Amino acid sequence: MKRVHIFDWHKEHAKKVEEFAGWEMPIWYSSIKEEHLAVRNGVGVFDVSHMGEIFFRGKDALKFLQYVTTNDISKPPAISGTYSLVLNERGAVKDETLVFNMGNDTYMMICDSDAFEKLYAWFTSIKGAIEQYTKLDLEIENKTYDMAMFSVQGPKARDLAMDLFGIDINQLWWFQAKEVELDGIKMLLSRSGYTGENGFEVYFEDANPYHPNPEKRGKPEKALYVWEKILKAGQKYGIKPAGLGARDTLRLEAGYTLYGNETKELQLLSTDIDEVTPLQANLEFAIFWDKEFIGKEALLKQKERGLPSKMVHFKMVDKGIPRAGYKVYADGKGIGEVTSGTLSPLLGIGIGIAFVKPEYAKPGIEIEIDIRGQKKKALTVAPPFYDPKKYGAFREE
């Protein structure tokens, strides 16, 4: 299995370490609930170095990214990012990504831990196909194993960023980044996250003792120093190291999709439109229609034909915890399936995301979830599940 730079620290301090998407990762240190609530009410730090980083360099980098992703990568100035999707030819989501314009014809794509290898192969194959006819000024490099990435999330993340870097992250727009230093260690800091809360993420290169290339292995001195520095500086704010368990419950409370659950490509080769498309997953906001991109034709066809299913959020009315794969019913018939579900640590009720027939994919509809053979009442809602005036990145202070 793959391991992040400071895996040894996690192995020593985490109560549960398990495989996730081919990586051996910390699931929790104290408990999912404790870490979850620390982020909602104070601050937590996640090691997300398992996320992929692919670099694109050269005069043709922007044109290439405009073609292989759905959003308008040309808009944000350096240094800032764009949430964009990578689709296959038949419109399904290969991954959800964040593409940073680094300046000087250089772009860094952040992608999911279980998608970066297939994306790198996908991009290099497209580049190779194009170069049979036209030479590209483009270098594509997978630097996932070289990059450390830490995510600091919660209402106190702003104070911690000021203490560590002298930066008020609230003065940055979402996905804006800055080049910063921490005790001489150069890194990129972006206002971003996957919890629904305000926060920042840092990216920097360091030696990885578990690098697949033996020649690149070494002690992760920078990563360990930065991680422990964040924890020490955050003590006065009650900071907690948080694992992937809390990361999942936090993103679900915020209503965010997860690649492999809500977004995926099923490779349904017998059809001209694959699943799951961004139209089904409520991600049309990440599509810039005024350009050509891979998968656009399939999406236009789906717009004309109508959607076979659509994503909806729901909360349980009856007691019960929904899980992926549970069937959804309404009006006495099956209408879909749950793709993500959990017991909300903040609300104390079951919440989830499902794909259902389009006519049921709107707030305020009573549905039923088949939980271990019993149909439990639920209600479709608009995300986030929490009160955005009390919690989340734009809470009223």
UniProtKB/TrEMBL annotation:
Residues 310-387 form the Aminomethyltransferase C-terminal domain. One of its GO terms (molecular function) is transaminase activity. It is an enzyme of class 2 (transferase). It comes from the Archaea. It holds the Pfam family GCV_T_C. Transmembrane segments: none annotated. Its EC number is 2.1.2.10. Substrate binds at residue 201. Residues 7-291 form the GCVT N-terminal domain. Keywords: Aminotransferase, Transferase. Belongs to the GcvT family. The glycine cleavage system is composed of four proteins: P, T, L and H. This is Probable aminomethyltransferase. It comes from Thermococcus litoralis (strain ATCC 51850 / DSM 5473 / JCM 8560 / NS-C).
